What does this fold into?
Amino acid sequence: MWPNARVILFSLILTAAVTITTAVFAGEPSGNNYFQLLLPAGLDTGGDRSGDGGSGNPNDYNYFYVGQTFTTDIQIVSEHTNSANIWVDYNTSTFSATNLTTGSYFPTWSNYIISGGRVKSTGFRVSGYSSGAGTFGTMQFTVLRPTAFNYGTGSAATLLVNVGTVGLTTESNISYLGSDILDDKEDFMVQTWADTKPPYSTNPDPADSSTGTAVEGSYAFDLRDSKNGDGDNSGYGTGINTLMGAGAGHVVINGIDYPSSAVSFSCASFKYGCYLYNVSVDPGSPLGIPGDQRNWDYNTAYTIDIYGFLDYASDNQDQLGDPNGPNTSTFICTTEDDTEKPQTTSVSPASGSSGNSPSANLSIEVLDKKTYPGNISGTGVSSTSCRITVSSASFASTTYQQGSAGVTVTSIDYGYRYDINPVTDFGQNETVFVNVNSCQDLADTPNVMLAYPYSFSTADLDTPYIDGQVPANDASMSAGDNITFNIKDNGTVDLTNTVVYVNGAYYTNSGGAGAVITNGTRITFASSLNFNGGPGTGPNTAVSAISGGYHFVIDPLTDFAAGEAVPIIIYTRDTTGNIMERSVHVPVVGGGTCPGGSTYCGSNTTWDAGLGKCVGTGGGSSNAGGATPALTINPSNITAMQIDETSIMLNWYSSQPGSGRVVYGTQSPSDYGTSPNYSYPNSTSEKNDNSTYHSVIVSGLKPGVIYYLRPITKTSIGEIRGDEITMVTKFSQTDCSTCPIKEVTVCPAEPAVTPARPAISTPIRETQAKPSISEILKIINIRVINIQDKGNGIIINGTANPSSNLKLIIY
It folds into this structure.
């Protein structure tokens, strides 16, 4: 078939040309038409990838080991050809051939086979011609036996390009128009060896016999498989098998055989196998701390044995008796000393913090690291070495350590946490001083930490308080007396949030309009005087600093009225926001005309200013004071006053010294029952002041509600209830700019009458009929049709007698 095909090819008329180019290699065949065998780029093991190693010197030939398979490219170079044929002969005891492929030089191929030590392939084209350099095909060879002992180069194997007689034979030829134009060819010379050199370790890091090795580094080395073995890094072996364990590789450091999970391999160089690995050993934290970057103990000598790693040499490579086996390397190094001291890294309460609870516990963390901050552990903290001293103005200096009462020591990453529960609380609003000292690490020569002093302050939890009131509650005073008192606090009294109310006048730190927020109550005032002195105040009005607070002197510009009760209400807070419950005390102005005789004390009795009570005047015996007068409460001396949105103060005199309390409700009883409440739903607690003057605060009321109140006095001779008095609490402060207008009907239209108008705070005598609100409105000549709530104001619509004067008292 081949001769016939050849005749046909030679008779073709060429109408096209194909040109293929490639690189030129040293020692290439001569002429313009030739074959040569080449290794793929990058997979050569000799001087270059050609059959003569680029020089023709056997030392430059490419080499392969028993069991390795390599690919050769069949290169064709021609000035013009329309058919070609190649035979490659090989020794079947040295090689086996497989995987013959056709190339791109010709479009059509035939007769490509491997048989009996010969590889054959034919390519042609039915029109045109091919030219230049190109790929005729590829084939693979596997090395079956070595051709020389111990890497000898004197008997290389040959892959022979069989050409018979160049230009005249039917073996390998390059044809053009029926003529064989082959000029030359190059056989492929190759050394085949047994790989008898085991892998070996080199380039240890830290270097062999080094000292001061950093404890955080991994141990690293190169694992290499070279042609000539340990001591000569040139060339390539069959590659390294990285399996570890029995019958395979081992890395043993100070007797610890590290598993493959602690050893990482990174291939650095590859030919037909990886012949160079960069290897690192990461044993992990000696202290078992997650994230700790330390790998080794401090100041420790380490011996590293690396052995047992195998290559991929064939099990059948010993035809010439060449031995192979694992290699062993031993390196040593010594790690650095631990020279860094432990440190206090976290404290609670925080250093410099304020507002801490007086009952706060302390928590202190002491760590030992190579660097701060960082994640390289030191040798560790000696938990028994630390001393922690705590003191404050109220807390005697106490030194704590492991084993002390109230101390809990907990192991944490890099050190210990010391939790201290002092046996007593600290004082409020004081500075607590802490000193952490004496902590040592576990180095061969212990490093002692520098003392760590810090402080924090406790909170002021108590509200301010009042003392030094002159005059005192219920005490008698002169009309021109000043009002003095002290506001004190564990911390600092907030003068800007202090308001003093004295008998209808407000005093503040700067004067003017304002408001004060108390516990659930907002007190708003349109004007105030300055309690530091100034316009509207007497010359003695002043505030001065004293130990723990301030001393106040309120000197009203005008004297008080004789006989009146002077309510004094104090609102304040401290600078940490603790609000004092309002302070109320009510002294009484002496002098003046006290109602006497039957008007106040009853018939046959008079007021004894010396005794401070009513005494009998008629028909008595020789006993001083005469007959015991009746126990009465004069209704003309009962007064009520608003204090704030939820409180009313009731003042009255009784004819005999006794206790005082008030019964009250939002409706007046239709009839009066018995003690203690006389049909009222509520009663204050009894104030046992044994006084003829009584002042009682009724608290817990609702804002803007009318209350009916009745004073009660109890003496050794019995209990008496005074007349009922009506008073409304102050309205609450509400932002109602968007509230809807509400119509409130007060009473139906009734004809106006003109009797005299009683004072609204005057009690309605029990002996009189109790009028309703509508009846009261009739008495005072007013008809209120409706009241409109405008959010920030009200509109009252109604009628009154001509020329009537209308006075509104807004609470």
About this structure: The longest helix spans residues 2-10. Confidence is low (pLDDT under 50) at residues 1-26, 592-604, 617-626, 734-781. Helices lie at 2-10, 597-600, 773-779. The radius of gyration is 58 Å.
